[in-house]
């Protein structure tokens, strides 16, 4: 398709030459490109890329315009094309993650700010659905809980361990009600539906605890976009953005005034995430309690240790680290594909 003096092309993500050209163009804007996107478009002028954009699920990403052509309407052209193609695929809600000094460009296109982590990044959204509708739904799902002080936790539980259970038990004892939000993003070896089920089963005895899916606004591809920044800045931008969205929108909607979390001696990203909570949540009158990990035979209980033991088939020790509900699942036929995946991989996750 021709657009003015430019040619609009859909990038073949299986074509190394085309992908390399996009990657090289994005590097000028300190943006990285991976083939883990659903669709990419580029505008060419005299056979050179002057604008590009991609989407992965609901996230519009890697939108960049040649500096000499900024202000010429190319941002609108790229975003409109991406939204139309996403709509053809049944996607009608869109996120954009951008630098603070570029946020106004997308606000002018109808995107509304969800949260920001100055000076690193701003998250905006458009389309059907919003952070406001998400918060209203979450408020309704927690309305039945006892009145009084309410705590919140965000957990991944890959898989659910006695360590997770201990932190939540402490919160349940010290508060009238507890909301446990399970990360919905599919980035772990244990799929979300299994992680969610194991958390619910492991907490079935607590009548003041509700377990809910975290959804798209908590530790998701939108709030943790690894493609956008580099090095330490990536972790800082991601964790502070996620913490800010929780503090400004999610916690108030559900009446959460205290957030509990286990300390993190192993994973640097989780450790930075905890620090972001400690830095940001108190500014919004939300207390933060970081609980030391429980230990078994002198070793800290962790999901990563459980996965390592699954790799080694160390069932005797696994039994000391997880609730019976988790152990029974791990010993069931349904867990075989997950265990095989763990045993054939060297990934920590």
UniProtKB/TrEMBL annotation:
It comes from Pelosinus baikalensis. Acetylation of prosthetic group (2-(5''-phosphoribosyl)-3'-dephosphocoenzyme-A) of the gamma subunit of citrate lyase. Keywords: ATP-binding, Ligase, Nucleotide-binding. It comes from the Bacteria. Its EC number is 6.2.1.22. One of its GO terms (molecular function) is [citrate (pro-3S)-lyase] ligase activity. Residues 1-129 form the N-acetyltransferase domain. PANTHER family: [CITRATE [PRO-3S]-LYASE] LIGASE. This is [Citrate [pro-3S]-lyase] ligase. It catalyses: holo-[citrate lyase ACP] + acetate + ATP = acetyl-[citrate lyase ACP] + AMP + diphosphate. Pfam families: Citrate_ly_lig.
